[in-house]
Specification:
With 346 residues, the protein is an alpha/beta fold. It has two domains: 2-157 and 296-345, Medium-chain alcohol dehydrogenases, catalytic domain (Quinone Oxidoreductase, Chain A, domain 1); 167-292, NAD(P)-binding Rossmann-like Domain (Rossmann fold). It is 27% helix and 25% strand. A hairpin with a 2-residue loop joins β4 and β5 (55-58). It is globular. Bound molecules: zinc ion (2 copies). Residues 98-99, 101-102, 104-105, 110, 113 line the site of one zinc ion.
Length: 346
């Protein structure tokens, strides 16, 4: 197999050739057709996540490692006893695979288990032509979804879907605010349009991204850098029932929490990092809920793929590039030059 491997933090990926692995009991081998690039890949490549102020949480990986957790392909082989779709089936690969033994895994939250079997982090991931999947149950048939849609569903799509599910079923006239129109935010916009009749308000400092959001059905697009942007929004609309922060920085959280009405919910999804100053008295006085959402469960991933198969969700913006151009794709993503998602093809 061929892969673009990370051999040291912060260094260009290297083109490596390795023997293609054979699936053991319960495992599956997938021939990759598409792999999406995610901002988390950039953080892992840098070697740390910013957890607020100057605090950095180091990433533990073994070199060489292969990034990429938004994977789509065809089942190439199943190991002994593996309960997965037959070889040749088009699948998306759920990458957030848990140990299968702990309480989180047993209640269906294997995405909250730990990183040990996660593809593209602890295990070799999608920036390759094949991937070994440690549990064939993680393969989700995608039918005839357009190329790349299944891949993007596994991180940006799933992350947005799981976050939006935490809003519940609000009254139809109340606006929902989505902060940050990067890859995950745009996926969130498309899903929110399919899931809710409510007006969806897009927020981004970048005019090109606000424009992209308006073209894709946002009722309104707000520049959060404008003076008193959140206050003005609340005055005009009565406030949002919920705001999803797809960035997770101090100022995007500030806008999100400032844009909700009393009794509203802020869901923080983005991993940009930063600190928020939260006067605790505002939680009871505003009857406010702050929730965190991390990727999503395997059941949610299956539910999302079913929703995508209905054709009710707009296809995400994506740009295909060859796997061999992974390094320049990383550079562009880091420089904020990508609208939507880059999808690599081996
Ligand atoms: Zn991701
Ligand atoms: Zn577990």
């Amino acid at each position: 197999m061929r892969c673009q491997a990370m051999t040291a933090f912060g260094q260009p990926l290297e083109d490596l050739e390795r023997e293609t692995p054979q699936p053991g009991p319960g495992e599956a081998l997938v021939k990759i057709t598409r792999a999406g690039l995610c901002h988390s890949d950039l953080h892992i490549h840098e070697g740390f996540f910013n957890v607020g102020g100057d605090a950095k949480q180091p990433v533990a990986v073994q070199f060489p490692c292969v990034l990429g957790h938004e994977i789509e392909g065809e089942v190439a082989a199943l190991g002994d006893g593996a309960k997965g779709p037959a070889p040749g089936t088009r699948v998306a690969v759920f990458p957030w695979i848990g140990c299968g033994q702990c309480t989180a895994c047993k209640r269906g939250d294997q995405h909250l288990c730990g990183p040990n079997r996660v593809l593209g982090v602890a295990r070799w991931g999608g920036l390759a032509d094949h991937v070994l999947v440690p549990d064939a149950d993680a393969l989700i048939p995608i039918g005839d979804l357009a190329p790349g849609v299944g891949a993007l569903a596994m991180c940006s799509g799933l992350t947005a879907f799981s976050a939006l599910k935490k809003i519940g079923k609000p009254r139809a006239e109340e606006p929902i605010v989505l902060v940050g129109m990067g890859g995950v935010g745009l996926a969130g916009l498309a899903l929110a349009k399919a899931l809710f009749p409510n007006p969806i308000v897009a927020v981004d400092i970048d005019p090109a991204k606000r424009e992209a959001a308006l073209k894709r059905g946002a009722a309104e697009a707000i520049d959060p850098a404008a003076a008193d942007a959140a206050k003005t929004f609340v005055k005009q609309s009565g406030g949002a029932v919920a705001a999803v922060d797809f960035v997770g920085a101090g100022d995007t959280y500030a806008f999100a929490s400032g844009s909700i009405r009393r009794g509203g919910t802020v869901v923080v999804v983005g991993l940009f990092g930063g600190l928020a100053n939260i006067p605790l008295i505002t939680l009871p006085l505003r009857a406010m809920t702050i929730a965190g959402s991390f990727v999503g469960s395997l059941d949610e991933a299956r539910e999302l793929v079913d929703l995508l198969k209905t054709g009710k969700v707009a296809t995400p913006l994506m740009e295909e590039r060859p796997l061999a151009a992974a390094n320049s794709a990383f550079d562009d993503l880091r420089a904020g030059k990508v609208v939507g998602r880059v999808v690599l093809t081996p």
